[in-house]
Amino acid sequence: MKTYILNLPSALERRNFQAQQAERLGLQALFIDAQTPADIPDAFFQAHAFSWERPIKITEVACFMSHHQVWQQIAASHQPALVLEDDAILARNTPELLRVLSQLEGVDHVSLETRQRQKLLGRRYKAAKGLNARLHPLLQDRTGAAAYVLWPSGARLLLAKFEQQGMGLADAFISSTYQLKSWQTVPAFAIQADVASAYGVSCPIAPHSLIAREKVPSPPTRSGLHDLQLKWRRLRGQLRLAVRYLRCFWRARRQFVGVDPQQFSINAAKDAAPTAPVC
User: Fold this and answer.
1) For position 227, what pLDDT does the model report?
2) Which of 111, 210, 236, 276 has the most crowded Cβ, counting Cβ within 10 A?
3) Which residues pair with 141 in a beta bridge?
4) HSE-CB for 73 with a 13 A CA cutoff
5) Residue 213, C-beta contacts closer than 8 angstroms, at least 6 positions apart
6) Residue in 40, 64, 53 with CA at minimum distance from that of residue 170
7) CA distance 193 to 212
């Protein structure tokens, strides 16, 4: 299984970390230059900055388009792939998980991460053979696009939604695409650097978010009517979340997804032998 790693060319510390992590885990890693605001033409930005429930910053447009270019590559392939942002920290047993996932059928998307927020998970599950882990249907999520496996079918759904509706925040865009057959690993196999300490995991890189660090203002709305239109869109989005919950609550439950701390132990990782490449 290929691993696409989104990395800003200027973020050398993160690139080095991801290269070392991929080598240690035996991942078939391909670095993708993440887009920056300088890569986004102003006309394109103006055309898409107001397609979500609130104005989207140009840094968020760049982040979305970085994921979008990977979705295009996966859609044109015949195999699922792991997509990582460059601050994703993976569990040591991720290669074994990827082998299990590569054998699944009828799946579009699997989230590997957790971010201190509850997820709505189906009560039924698939056991991950050979791993002390399960896969639950992911019926509603709110945040997180730093570590997920995407199938060509799922990539095509996301691309079609973009063509029909425009873009959004990358994580919210994915999680609100209810047509996806999405699943969640329990426990999580990935966390982002900025929440590592909350899970008792040593963070090997600077934990701040590069997008959050850039103080870029949101584009101003064009008029009072435009502002009301965005507020109405936001309200419809919240109603859609509520309807989704009401449709699914009888077969699901909200829960925090934890991690297995031993699988993120630095000492354990150093002692572990290199893993054969995951193909």
Assistant:
1) 78
2) 111
3) none
4) 15
5) none
6) 64
7) 13
Two structure tokens written together for 173 = 């865009």
Return d(Cα 50, Cα 168) in angstroms, integer. Answer: 9
Q: Are 119 and 183 in contact (CB under 8 A)?
A: no
Extract the tokens encoding 213.
Answer: 């660090």
Residue whose entry in the numeric block shows the structure tokens 């447009």: 61
151's CB contacts (< 8 A; 6+ apart) are: 74, 80, 107, 108, 109
The more confidently predicted of residues 248 and 103 is: 103
Q: Long-range contact list for 14-21, CB < 8 A, 24+ apart?
A: 14/86, 14/87, 14/205, 15/86, 17/86, 17/204, 17/205, 18/84, 18/86, 18/88, 21/89, 21/90
83 pLDDT tier (thresholds 50, 70, 90): very high
Average pLDDT value over all residues in the chain: 88
Instruction: Examine residue 187 and say whether the peptide bond preceding it is cis (omega within 30 degrees of 0).
Output: yes
Contact of 155 with 52, CB cutoff 8 Å? no
196-208, pLDDT tens digit by residue? 999 999 888 887 7
Q: Which residues pair with 188 in a beta bridge?
A: 259
Name the pLDDT band for 57 (thresholds 50, 70, 90).
very high
203-213 as b/e: b if 16+ CB within 10 A = bbbeeeebeee
- Model confidence pTM above 0.85: yes
Which tens digit of pLDDT belongs to each residue from 253-278?
A: 999 999 998 898 653 344 344 444 44
